[in-house]
Amino acid sequence: EVQLVESGGGLVQPGGSLRLSCAASGFTFSKYVMSWVRQAPGKGLEWIAYITTSGASTGYVDSVKGRFTISRDNAKNTVDLQMNSLEPEDTAVYYCNLVKSGVNYWGSGTLVTVSS
Asked: Do β-strands 3-7 and 103-106 pair in parallel, antiparallel, or remain unpaired?
């Protein structure tokens, strides 16, 4: 059974940093592209970053480029999201995402609140 468990969210002031982590199990982690998505209050899901199986290639939505960094550890089955220079607009529930055999998998998410 696929399981994705996000952690690391919390309350941070504008300009601050947080590091999110997603622990994956139930599948061969190293064989799948992983992503982070987020959902701001009252809004839909927004894809924000992906990382390829080896970690050699990454991609970001324009709004987080230069501020967020996605990484993975295939030995530990984890995918992280380092978030710097956080803005109030980054307030959202953050989910890691796996697409496997055409099925989307999500964890329960971790809430990030950026506020002074």
From this structure: unpaired
What single-letter amino acid sits at 11? L
Q: Please give the Cα distance from 82 to 70 (Å, whole number).
A: 6
- For the segment 49-104, what is each residue's pLDDT rounded down to a tens digit? 999 999 999 999 999 999 999 999 999 999 999 999 999 999 999 999 999 999 99
pLDDT for 15: 98
Give the pair of three-digit tokens for residue 50.
């992906």
The torsion defined by the Cα of 48, 53, 54 and 57, in degrees rounded to 10, comes to -40
Question: Which residues on adjacent β-strands are paired with residue 112?
Answer: 10, 92
Nearest Cα neighbor of 3 from 101, 95, 69 is 95
